[in-house]
Write a sequence for this structure.
């Protein structure tokens, strides 16, 4: 049971991290290379789809990491779980206000303010990528060490 929890925590976390990093390094910069109206138009459906996938993976990794710790996997499993778990409150506190502003009905999608919000969103999402990457490294190190 311990090994299954460790593998699932690591798998979910690395999938989360890979998706988050892809968004920051590929998808969002490509989107931002377009006119602001186009970038904002394609951001909304991408955000909605990614939210479902990333939230599920992040929470699953958190729960499996905590389970691995409870089953005797060591304190580093809890550390990794807390790192990936920090994505949830960070998203609600720091990113959601920007999301809500970007999704406001009647927003001028071509405005400089919309461009600034999209830029801000990209920087904030980078924090999510960093937390996921850090948690992935903790988990992977524990697997490699057999801890």
């Amino acid at each position: 049971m311990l090994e299954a929890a460790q593998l699932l925590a690591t798998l979910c976390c690395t999938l989360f991290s890979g998706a988050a990093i892809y968004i920051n390094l590929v998808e969002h910069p490509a989107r931002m290379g377009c006119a602001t109206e186009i970038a904002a138009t394609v951001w909304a459906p991408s955000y909605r789809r990614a939210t479902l996938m990333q939230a599920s993976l992040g929470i699953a990794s958190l729960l499996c990491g905590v389970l691995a710790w409870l089953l005797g996997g060591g304190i580093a499993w809890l550390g990794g779980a807390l790192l990936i778990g920090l994505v949830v409150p960070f998203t609600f506190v720091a990113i959601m206000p920007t999301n809500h502003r970007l999704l406001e009905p009647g927003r001028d999608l071509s405005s400089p303010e919309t461009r600034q919000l999209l830029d801000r969103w990209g920087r904030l999402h980078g924090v999510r990528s960093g937390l996921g990457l850090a948690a992935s490294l903790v988990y992977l190190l524990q697997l490699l060490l057999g801890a």
Remarks:
- The radius of gyration is 17 Å.
